[in-house]
Amino acid sequence: MTLGEDDLVAWGRRIGAEIRPPVFIGLRGPLGAGKSVLARAVARGAGVRETLPSPTFNIVFRYELPAAESVVHADLYRLRSVDELAGIGWDEIVGDEGAIVLVEWPGRAGGELPADRWEVTLGYAAADPGKRTVELECFGEPAPVPAFPIGVR
Ligand SMILES: Nc1ncnc2c1ncn2[C@@H]1O[C@H](COP(=O)(O)OP(=O)(O)OP(=O)(O)O)[C@@H](O)[C@H]1O
Ligand SMILES: [Mg+2]
To answer: Taking 60 as the threshold, does the pLDDT of residue 139 lie above it?
Structure first.
């Protein structure tokens, strides 16, 4: 599927509004593909109201939601090896039953990704700089997420 930014954001908001923790979503795609745009939309949809910075200097951001739930947004781009995962509290993040976890550059975690997860792959659309190709893949048995943006096919 190919989506403009508004549709990608609408899908992300709907994911955030409809899923309940625990859920893990890996966000793949090249620099500037829209991984952070999608992650922030999911956080907004889940009810996060505070400012949402891009995780450029910090690797992990955590936003608290009511009912002891949270959204965790991590960007593993600058991780140099899987050995550094312990230093960012990876086991706690992956094992957090109350969290919606969104991870950019999940390939940096090697074999340490949870078995039950979604992966979204974003790519540049050849003909249109304002659009992105979007693929959603399921691994294991994660909680269901809305598969397509409303009104887009
Ligand atoms: N259809 C689209 N979907 C998402 N973003 C788009 C789209 N079209 C244009 N953009 C723009 O592309 C940029 C995406 O930036 P974003 O920070 O989300 O990328 P990223 O994948 O997180 O990159 P990085 O790997 O550097 O973290 C934004 O400036 C956004 O406005
Ligand atoms: Mg990003």
So the answer is: yes
Alpha-carbon gap, residue 34 to 37, rounded angstroms:
5
Tokens of 92: 């706690």
Query: Using one digit for the tens of pLDDT, what is the confidence trace for 43-67?
Result: 999 999 988 776 666 799 999 998 8
In sequence order, the β-bridge partners of residue 24 are 101
**Domain residue spans in the chain?**
2-131
The fold of 2-131 is: Rossmann fold (3.40.50)
Residues with CB under 6 A from ligand 1: 3-5, 8, 29, 31-37, 54, 75, 77, 104, 130-132
Residue 142 has pLDDT above 80, yes or no: yes
**Proximal ligand: closest to the CA of 131:** 1
